[in-house]
Amino acid sequence: MTTALVYSEKYLEHNPGEGHPERPERLKAIVDALKRAKLWGAPKVKVIEPKPTKREDIELVHDPSHVELVERLSKFEKPLDGDTPVRKNTYELALLAAGGTIDAGRVVLSGDALNAFALVRPPGHHATQARGGGFCYFNNLAVMIERLKREFKLRRVFILDFDAHHGNGTQNIFYDDPSVLYMSLHQDPLTLYPGTGFIDEVGSGEGNGYTVNVPLPPESGDAEYMGAMKEIFVPLTEQFKPELFAVSAGFDAYVDDPLTQLRLSTLAYGWLTRFVVEQAERLCKGRVVFVLEGGYVPDALAEGVVNVAKTLTGEKPSTSVEPRRTSVIDELKRVLSSYWKL
Ligand SMILES: [Zn+2]
Asked: In terms of residue numbers, what domain contains 257?
């Protein structure tokens, strides 16, 4: 079965400016590395040129006033915030990033590919219903889910967000929605942007229990991630029984990333993916969609993406990492005990 990579050279045209960490070289390094690894153009890999999505699809998630704001700021090149500049082509490229993510989901749900990776820029997981920020304009992954819920009558989607920053936008959008379980592994919000993603943020109303935050102390690495995947991700997915796995794939938990203080190896991205692939095989015919978020050391980012892509195409990553159980996991289990058996 095929793995789809969704990519357009246009994604390199998104340029937040000199010295900004979210730069075009990131994606260029990824494509070069996928070519060197002979994954790009391999028989079991299909590269898809994305189409921009329509404004109506963005408005399934975002307030019309926010969509209008991004469009208007693009005309005047006024920033959304200090970290999130807006250029003439920002609105158009943000529609193409969301469109590429929808295309990745669609190719998987229609059965034309087993799994997919949307290699898009700009990223999306900090964009809430009402606003962008943190390098994000529209929430690509949330737009994909809302669009495809309607097209394919999806009832349950599991999101794993392993970007080092909490995906406050994605959490916000699905906070009261029991059809989408959002699980995020991220650096302790007391020590990193955006300052949300504490253990006791578990959802609201009908969505109570469907937001799961694993805030890891600075210096956490492979052992702590392995512990969280075994102790939380596996039992949670077994009980939730998703019809699709969607992964917000940020690579900035990498040990030398300049924006964060976590210590993940590039190899970890292979076995993190293996957890998702294995659960997807057991629960939903292997349906997995990855979407690119952060990661600010281009070579390490590229190596991480190659390790993800290898695992998506069926390679089994070797791992000898011993899980480390932490007080975060114990506390999270206690907080979630009224919703899940963990
Ligand atoms: Zn990040």
From this structure: 3-336
